[in-house]
Amino acid sequence: MESKKNQVPLELLPWLVVHSDGKIERLAGTEVCPPGLDQETGVLSKDIIIDPKTGLSARIYRPESVQPGQKLPLVLYFHGGAFLIASASFPCYHTTVNKLVAQANVIAVSVSYRLAPEHPLPTAYEDSWTALETILTVNEPWINDYADLDRLFLVGDSAGANISHHLAFRAKQSDQTVKIKGIGMIHPYFWGTQPIGSEIKDKARKQMVDGWWEFVCPSEKGSDDPWINPFTDGSPDLEGLGCERVMIAVAEKDILKERGKLYYERLVKGEWIGKVEMMETKGKDHVFHIFEPDCDEAVEMTRRLALFINQVLV
Q: What is the pLDDT of residues 220-230, one digit of tens each?
C-alpha cells in the first residue's frame, strides 16, 4: 500500500506536483545555464543581485559591439511559466533574450522574480516592481554607460506579459518618474471565468487553465481576480495604461489567444491614447518561440518585436 506521505494530492502537469507532505517537485523549468558571451549572437550577459534581502536577481545583457557613449533602448524582460516555473537563467529564456538583444540592439534585464507557491502572489508583481525601480537607480555600469532610460520597454511572455500590464499601471500611479515607452506582450496570460471565442468549445483546456490559476492565486474571485482578468470588476480601466505603445502577439492554437485579441480591441476602441499593434502566428501554440527559437515563425516574431522597440514616431 502506498503510504500517505508519498501520495500525490495535486498535479499541475507538466510543471509540478505537490505531495501530501507539502513537498513541491518541479518537473520543468529548473535547468540553468551560465551567463557570458553567446557566440551565435555576439551578446554578453552577467548576473546581478537586485535585492540581497530576498535574493531577487536578474540577468543583464548587452551587445558585445556596443561602443562607449552609445545609448540603446532598455528592455526589462519578464519570463513566463504561469508564475510557477523558470527563471532568467533557464536555457530557453537565456536563448530568447540573447536573440532579442542581438536583433533589436538593446540592453536587456531579465528578471528572476520569486515563484509560487513558495512565494504566493502578489510576490512576483512586487519583485518585478522592485526590479524596475532598482534598475533605474542602481550604480550598474552596463545601465549607466549604455542604456537610454527615456526608451524603456517592458517585454514579457505569458505570465511575464501579465506582469508588464500591471507594472504599466503602477508606474503611472507612482510618485517616481518611471516612464515606460512601450510594452511588448507575447501570448499574454489573461483569463476569465466565462469562456469566450474558441474557449467555449475547448472545455478541457479551459478547466486546465482555471486549475492552474486557482493553485497560484486561490481566492473567491477565481479566474475573475483582477490579477488575471483585466476586464473584470475591480480591474483598472485600460485608459490608464501607462505607456505610449503596445504590441500584442498571439498564436493561432493558443487557448489564451482570445484574451490577447480582446485586450487589443479594448485598446483600439477605448479611450487609451497610444498606438497598439497585434500580430498572430498561424499554426503555432503558446510560447512556441521559447521552445523553437530558430523556427521561421519565432524569427519573424523577434524581428517584429525589434521593429516595435526601435520604431521612431514622428
A: 899 999 999 99
